[in-house]
C-alpha cells in the first residue's frame, strides 16, 4: 500500500513512533524505521515488560522493512534463518485515542504472531525455535483494534527456517479501520481482476490452439498467460491462501519459482512463432538448457537453497526479454506488422518485471507491479493474435470465394462441354449413317458390276469358242496340205 501524498513521512526511532501530531485515522502511515529487536528470542509482551523492569531499556534495534539477513549484531552478520521478537511503542494523537484502528500486515517471512497492547490478534503459521517446530505460511492480514489509551504497543514474534531471508521485509500500515479496509478490498479486487483476466485469456488461447493446431503461437501465448495467472495467485495479496488457507507453503514457492524459470523459454518460443527466423538456433539451444537446469534445481532442492537464486533467475528473465527486444527493434525497422506494438508493451512489461525483482530483493519500494505489466502485455498480444486470426479468416473467405467462382466456371464449362459432346456425337452418328448408306450403295453397285461382267463373259464365250474352232480347223488343213507337198 502507498500512503496518501499529504501524509507526513514519519519514522520510528529506537523502537518508538510519535504520532501525537498525526491523525492516522485520516492519513494511514507505514510503520518504517527502527524497531526494538530481540534476536534468537521469542518473547511475549509480558516477558518484555518483566525484562525491561529488571534490566532497563533495550539497546538493539533493526530497521523495518528489511530482512535480518546480513544485519550486524554484536559484531556479527546475521544469517537468514533464525527467530526474533520485534517491538514498537506508538504514541497516538488525541483524535485517534478513541478511534477504531487497523493494522495491515503484509507477508512476513515466514511465520509470526502479533500482539497489540498485550492481546494476541494475528497468527500466521506456527512460530518455533527450530525447523521442526516451525510451520511456514504466507498470508496478508487486516486486524482491527480499539486503543484503550494514547499508547499502542506492537509485539511480533517471527521465525524463519525455510527461506534464505527472514524478518519483516515489507511495510506494515497503521490507519483507520474503514479506510484501510476499503483500500485492502480494492487491492484484492484489482488483483482478482488481473488474475481472472490472465487465466481466462490463457485458457481461451489454449482452446484456440486445440481448434487450429497448425499455428503454435496461441499455444505458447496461452501457456505463458495461464502460468502467470497462476503466479498472480501466489504473490501480492496471496489470493491462493485466502481461498485455500491450508495450501502447502513449499508447493506454493516451488510453483512460483518454476513459473519464473520457464517464462523466458516460453516467451522465446512465442516470439519465434510471431516473427520466424529472428531467434538464432544457438539461443534456442542455450535457453532450453538453462531453463531446464534451473527448473531441475528448483524441483530438487529446498527453498533455503533455490530462493538464493532469485537474482540469477531475474537476470536470466531480463536477458531473455532484452534479446527478444533487440529482435523486435530489427523487425520494427523492417516495418513488420505488429513489431512496434510488441516492442512498446514488452518495454513496459520489462520495467514492471525488473521492479518486482528489485522489490523482492528489497531494492525497490514499489510492490507487485509485474501482474499489471503482464496484463497490458497480454492484452496487446491478444489483439495481435486476434488480428492475425482475422487476417487468416479473411484470406480463407477470399480463397473460398475464389474457389467458388472457379467452381462455377468449371461447372459452366462442363455443361458447355456436355452440350458440345452431345452435338458432336449427333454429328458423328449422322456421318456414320451416311457412311453406312454409302457403303450399302457401293456394295450394291459392286454386285451389279459383277453380274454385268458375268453376263458379258457368258455372251462372249460362245463366239470366241466358235472362232477358236474355225482357227484350229484352218490350222489343221494348212498343216495337211504342207505335208503332201
TrEMBL record:
Q: Which CDD domains match?
A: HisKA (cd00082)
Could you name the domain of life of the organism this protein comes from?
A: Bacteria
Gene3D superfamilies, sorted: 1.10.287.130, Galactose-binding domain-like (2.60.120.260)
The record's section on InterPro entries has: 7TMR_DISM_rcpt_extracell_dom1, Galactose-bd-like_sf, HisK_dim/P_dom, HisK_dim/P_sf
Keyword presence, NADP? no
Keywords noted in UniProt: Coiled coil, Kinase, Membrane, Transferase, Transmembrane, Transmembrane helix, Two-component regulatory system
Signal sequence interval, chain numbering: none
Q: Where does the 7TM-DISM receptor extracellular domain start and stop, copy by copy?
A: 192-385
- Transmembrane spans: 192-211, 218-235, 255-273, 285-306, 312-333, 340-360, 366-385
Pfam families, per database record: 7TMR-DISM_7TM
- Give the coiled coil ranges: 393-423
Which Enzyme Commission number(s) are on file for it? Answer: 2.7.13.3
Q: Which reaction does it catalyse?
A: ATP + protein L-histidine = ADP + protein N-phospho-L-histidine
Report what the protein is called. histidine kinase
This protein's species is: Paenibacillus haidiansis
Amino acid at each position: 500500500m502507498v500512503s496518501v501524498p499529504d501524509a507526513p513521512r514519519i519514522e520510528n526511532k529506537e523502537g518508538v513512533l510519535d504520532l501525537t501530531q498525526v491523525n492516522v485515522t485520516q492519513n494511514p502511515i507505514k510503520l518504517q524505521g527502527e524497531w526494538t529487536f530481540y534476536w534468537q528470542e521469542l518473547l511475549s509482551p509480558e516477558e518484555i515488560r518483566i525484562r525491561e523492569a529488571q534490566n532497563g531499556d533495550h539497546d538493539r534495534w533493526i530497521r523495518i522493512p528489511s530482512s535480518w539477513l546480513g544485519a550486524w549484531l554484536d559484531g556479527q552478520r546475521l544469517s537468514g534463518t533464525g527467530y526474533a521478537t520485534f517491538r514498537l511503542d506508538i504514541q497516538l494523537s488525541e483524535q485517534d485515542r478513541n478511534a477504531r484502528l487497523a493494522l495491515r500486515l503484509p507477508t512476513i517471512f515466514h511465520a509470526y504472531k502479533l500482539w497489540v497492547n498485550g492481546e494476541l490478534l494475528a497468527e500466521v503459521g506456527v512460530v518455533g525455535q527450530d525447523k521442526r517446530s516451525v510451520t511456514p505460511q504466507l498470508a496478508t492480514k487486516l486486524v482491527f483494534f480499539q486503543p484503550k489509551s494514547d499508547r499502542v504497543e506492537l509485539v511480533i514474534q517471527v521465525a524463519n527456517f525455510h527461506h534464505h531471508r527472514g524478518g519483516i521485509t515489507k511495510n506494515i500500515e497503521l490507519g483507520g479501520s474503514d479506510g484501510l479496509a476499503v483500500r485492502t478490498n480494492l487491492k484484492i479486487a484489482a488483483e482478482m481482476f488481473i488474475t481472472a483476466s490472465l487465466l481466462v485469456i490463457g485458457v481461451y488461447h489454449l482452446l484456440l490452439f486445440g481448434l487450429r493446431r497448425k499455428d503454435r503461437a496461441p499455444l505458447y501465448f496461452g501457456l505463458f498467460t495461464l502460468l502467470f495467472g497462476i503466479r498472480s495467485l501466489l504473490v501480492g495479496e496471496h489470493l491462493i491462501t485466502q481461498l485455500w488457507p491450508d495450501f502447502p507453503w513449499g508447493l506454493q514457492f516451488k510453483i512460483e519459482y518454476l513459473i519464473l524459470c520457464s517464462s523466458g523459454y516460453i516467451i522465446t518460443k512465442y516470439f519465434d512463432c510471431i516473427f520466424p527466423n529472428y531467434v538464432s538456433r544457438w539461443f534456442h539451444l542455450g535457453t532450453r538448457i538453462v531453463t531446464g537446469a534451473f527448473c531441475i534445481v528448483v524441483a530438487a532442492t529446498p527453498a533455503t537453497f533455490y530462493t538464493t537464486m532469485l537474482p540469477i533467475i531475474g537476470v536470466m528473465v531480463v536477458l531473455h526479454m532484452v534479446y527478444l527486444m533487440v529482435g523486435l527493434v530489427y523487425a520494427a525497422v523492417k516495418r513488420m506488422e505488429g513489431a512496434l506494438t510488441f516492442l512498446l508493451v514488452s518495454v513496459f512489461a520489462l520495467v514492471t518485471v525488473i521492479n518486482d525483482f528489485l522489490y523482492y530483493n528489497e531494492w525497490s519500494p514499489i510492490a507487485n507491479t509485474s501482474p499489471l505489466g503482464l496484463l497490458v502485455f497480454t492484452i496487446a498480444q491478444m489483439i495481435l493474435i486476434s488480428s492475425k486470426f482475422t487476417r487468416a479468416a479473411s484470406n480463407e473467405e477470399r480463397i473460398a470465394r475464389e474457389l467458388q467462382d472457379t467452381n462455377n466456371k468449371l461447372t459452366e464449362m462442363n455443361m458447355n462441354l456436355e452440350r458440345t459432346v452431345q452435338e458432336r456425337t449427333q454429328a458423328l452418328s449422322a456421318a456414320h449413317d451416311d457412311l453406312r448408306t454409302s457403303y450399302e450403295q457401293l456394295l450394291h453397285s459392286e454386285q451389279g458390276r459383277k453380274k454385268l461382267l458375268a453376263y458379258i463373259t457368258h455372251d462372249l464365250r460362245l463366239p470366241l469358242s466358235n472362232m477358236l474352232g474355225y482357227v484350229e480347223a484352218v490350222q489343221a488343213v494348212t498343216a495337211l496340205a504342207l505335208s503332201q507337198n
